[in-house]
Amino acid sequence: MNINNVSKVVLIAKDEWRYWLRSKLAVTVLVIGLVLTLTSVIVTAITMIELSHTRHALQTTSDKSFVDQPDRHPHRMVHYGHYAFRTPAPLSTLDPGIDAFTGNSIFLEGHRQNSAMFADNRQGTALTKLGSLTPAFIVQTLAPLLLILIGYSAISRERELQTLPYLLSQGTSGLTLIAGKGLALICVVGLILIPLMVSSLFTVLNGESLLAVASFILGYALYLFVWVLLILLASSVFSKNSGSFTALIFLWILLCIVMPRVASTTAATVVPSQGKIETDFAVKAELRKLGDGHNANDPAFKQFKQSLLKKYNVETLDELPVNFRGVVAGESEAKQTAVLNKFAEQRMQAELKQTQLSRNFGWVTPMVAIKSLSMIVVGTSIETHHRFLRETEQLRFDFVQGLNKVHSEKLTYQDDINRNANATATKKARVSADNWQILQNFTFNSDSALVRADRSTSAFLQLLLWIAVLVGGIKFVGKRLL
User: Fold this and answer.
1) Residues 467, 150: contact at Cβ < 8 Å?
2) What is the rounded CA–CA span in Å between residue 418 and residue 424?
3) Cα 186 from chain centroid?
4) CA angle 128-130-136, nearest 5°?
5) What is the pTM of this model?
């Protein structure tokens, strides 16, 4: 494009802006878009910062409550348990992702794996869920609608006003006219993205990577550019404003409302996952085969008992240098954890397959592409949640086995089996509270920016394909514009 054409593009863009500024509807839509984006950024940021401080305080309180427990039997502390909290990722102030649905804390205790708790959207009422206008929701869903309201008549208006033949006769090509209108819409996109860019840059001060921030902003810029191209194409194809507006509203409903739900429904149908009740029955059936870790005389541990006596070359349990009941508890926990992890991995693999299948719908709707890209880059995707579950499970196992070690090494077998004989025996079967200093400091961080960028490659390619196809369509229509 030569300098003369560039000046024409800029001139057309300026003229479009003058038209918008004279139009009360366009100005109103612009103001609403900016206010909504800015307000959602501020409110969501404040909420996520408060959540971060609250979770940190609760983690500290939970750890202190555990270590401040008095002298107890070690296995009592296994069931007392403690909590692990997940602090929000820095960029989650803009897109909470699945964190709002999956929960942010887990209660860790022996013999079982608990689900994440305290999900914001599970605790809220229907009214509060509808009022959850996050910056991601605003830009993903409402910003395209605002762009449609502003730009649906960009080219079709020139046809209705009979100014299109005049413009073309003055040496302005159809592609130049479309480019000028597109430049004006891109400026609107820039205004919408400004609050998002400023707030995302602030997350760098909280430890977020510049690569993640750049990927986040670029992803949303590409997404809105897709909508700019869709608006220009529709406005160029239809000869009347009403036709262009109707087609674009239909596309908005299809691409932003219908198709994402079709994607999730299809994924759940094609990759079915076992229900909670069926899974619980299957887990219990497997665990019953392992024996009861609370009962050292369970037949399931007969062979283990013989191997332990042989290992230490003794004849009776009293002669063992360790408490047999504590060793059995540790052995049982290890086997139970292996079973629990097997079922947990099966569930997570099913969830991941469902997610990956639904993400493929990004090739047919840019909404799915940007939602996937946003959550991955921010660090609030299913992959990050699964890593949280795995890390907290390792934390749970280490903490329980630490107590089982105390049980086997700090309490004699005779004191343990006689603990319910009388008050004195019960007191003797306790260990010092000094042994509760076994908790590891738990801090959960998002994956590195490079890992997140690598995961988001497919979503970027989906948006770029949309852009390439639409640019091709606009070139075809622009050469025949009249």
Assistant:
1) no
2) 10
3) 29
4) 110
5) 0.88
